[in-house]
DNA sequence: CTGTTAGCGCTTTCAC
DNA sequence: GTGAAAGCGCTAACAG
């Protein structure tokens, strides 16, 4: 069942069939509908390869996701939701999503070649280092690229990230509203953009409330659990320990809560904790972890929208960044009496 | 830079280039190497669409993953690792991985059409219901299909799953070794294969030790956290509560541990708990959750191997199932004195 | 509005 | 061992 067969049975030419199926304006509504009806009555599906070959567009979006990047996979607790959003959006656009293999780091056009090979419409990047020659090579080309949680520059690129600053500020604001004045933070590796921004938001909100932030109240972590536990212990060992801690990632935050509890402190009684990310475990713990949630699903849909935008726009536009709102999820780790929550807003 | 250009520069015909690049035996080793060297010197990448169109094989494996299936995504905590394994294996085979859109449930050849459209080499199914007409239609066709964690039958299908029975038995054996005699279980929905098998393994191992299993010691859950908490409360309210519980999924197990603690019981002091899956949170909790780990990465690699096997085999072979070993990860939730672990094996 | 036709870039007989 | 040539199934000029 190919386009010729369809044309024959429909009593029209293949050109007309093609036009009807692609919704071209030149075809009359009557024949368009007739052909379309016939097509799905016969279960016709256009061959994607033939279509791509002839039109020089595959309708495929490549996902560049470096699974080797740091400790191999578990560091993107949200990948799954991003992927779902991406997939749904891509399909809604009538496109397909293909997972790209990893190109050698040092080959500046490993990915460019892959993109050409599949005639990709665009590429979505996540969990990659934009400075790697292979990635930089891709970004500097004319192919639409959208990076997640990563600021990139390039003739046809954009990025989407969460409002890390705003999320951190909301966390601090919440802690201040709970009556805390001695608020510390455990940061992520501040060479990573999200970590740097969360830290900046933390400082800014603290300043807005004229609260001090001694150096000893800032402990660097690495987003992994162990560093969170260690950081919390260091904070609680201070002569004047904080009464609240904003931890820049949930894995660290959870470990921090448990380290505190293990050392005999009560959470939130002695020390309140707020995390960032809203990973699954945050809701499974007791006390539940108050945390800043990101809209992972929207990452995907936004990325696909940007890709389409980039494809249409002139090639040399300034790189755009879309910032997605975050939401504070209040659980027990930061609220003395959960029930008071609603009573005293 | 296409095959013609390459042929011209190499002073040979396109046919020879094609043969050289595809490692065909007819071409002389000398020209083969020469052409290949030239190809990657010039950064030539064969156009995937043209290749697929001419050869009727795309080198693409489709991933059928129903993101709508029950509560939308979070129920596959291990998807990410499976995906990484899948991707790596697929790429090693020189293939690509494409995420298939969801076809309407009631269309028996929605997926068949998709597969034809992309000229797929095969399809990997995960998190889908094999009874859905659309999925059943795909399975009954001649396209190689491999299902994960799902027993499927079809002229060219196979499945891969974890040794759920063995894992459950290992869990029970461990509890018995810890001195427990009153061992209960919280099951998953036993209409799902993994849940049924874990339950079967539980019973079998209990029987092997001549331990009783009263009906009240078997509580049905649904793999979600809430059901785990409820089940645990029911067990602990029994006149003679169990001293150990095997919970068929980590999300339930974690909630069970916390419910017990919240009600004033000590884990593992009063009741030991062993879960299944080894999700991230299992290691983040205190006490850490003893659990049965699956080799998710290997799911992917095994699936790809099976796909290749199916493509080569005669179309009507009996459907094969590969069972992957599981591993018990002992943490604090099942061991009275963690340090004794090594001392008293 | 519709049909004819020339490719898209590759693989694959079939000759040599 | 190599080359010539005929498609693979579709899109996109170009005519009409």
TrEMBL record, chains A, B:
It holds the Pfam family LacI. One of its GO terms (molecular function) is DNA-binding transcription factor activity. It comes from the Bacteria. InterPro entries: HTH_LacI (IPR000843), LacI/GalR-like_sensor (IPR046335), Lambda_DNA-bd_dom_sf (IPR010982), Peripla_BP_I (IPR028082). CDD domains: HTH_LacI, PBP1_LacI_sugar_binding-like. Residues 1-55 form the HTH lacI-type domain. Keywords: DNA-binding, Repressor, Transcription, Transcription regulation. This is LacI family transcriptional regulator. It comes from Actinocatenispora rupis. The gene is lacI_1.
């Amino acid at each position: 069942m190919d386009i010729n067969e369809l044309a024959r049975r429909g009593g029209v030419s293949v050109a007309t069939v093609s036009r009807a199926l692609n919704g071209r304006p030149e075809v009359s509504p009557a024949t368009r509908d007739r052909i379309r009806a016939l097509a799905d009555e016969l279960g016709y599906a256009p061959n994607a390869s033939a279509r791509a070959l002839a039109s020089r567009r595959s309708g495929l979006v490549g996902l560049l996701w470096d699974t080797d990047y740091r400790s191999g996979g578990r560091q993107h607790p949200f990948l799954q939701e991003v992927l779902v959003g991406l997939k749904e959006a891509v399909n809604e656009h009538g496109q397909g999503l293909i997972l790209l293999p990893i190109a050698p780091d040092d080959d500046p056009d490993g990915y460019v070649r892959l993109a050409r090979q599949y005639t990709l419409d665009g590429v979505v990047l996540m969990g990659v280092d934009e400075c790697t020659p292979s990635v930089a090579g891709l970004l500097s080309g004319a192919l639409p690229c959208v990076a997640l949680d990563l600021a990139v520059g390039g003739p046809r690129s954009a990025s989407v990230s969460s409002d890390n600053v705003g999320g951190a500020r909301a966390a601090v604001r919440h802690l201040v509203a709970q009556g805390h004045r001695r608020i510390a933070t455990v940061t992520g590796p501040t060479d990573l953009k999200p970590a740097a921004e969360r830290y900046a938001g933390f400082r800014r909100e603290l300043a807005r409330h004229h609260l001090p932030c001694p150096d000893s109240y800032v402990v660097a972590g690495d987003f992994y659990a162990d560093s969170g536990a260690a950081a919390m212990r260091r904070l609680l060992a201070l002569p004047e320990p904080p009464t609240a801690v904003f931890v820049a990632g949930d894995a660290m935050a959870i470990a921090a809560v448990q380290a505190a509890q293990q050392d005999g402190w009560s959470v939130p009684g002695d020390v309140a904790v707020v995390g960032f990310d809203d990973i699954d475990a945050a809701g499974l713990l007791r006390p539940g972890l108050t945390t800043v949630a990101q809209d992972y699903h929207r990452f995907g849909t936004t990325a696909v929208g940007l890709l389409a935008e980039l494809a249409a726009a002139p090639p040399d536009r300034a790189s755009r960044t879309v910032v997605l709102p975050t939401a504070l999820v209040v659980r027990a780790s930061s609220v003395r009496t959960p029930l008071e929550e609603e009573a005293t807003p």
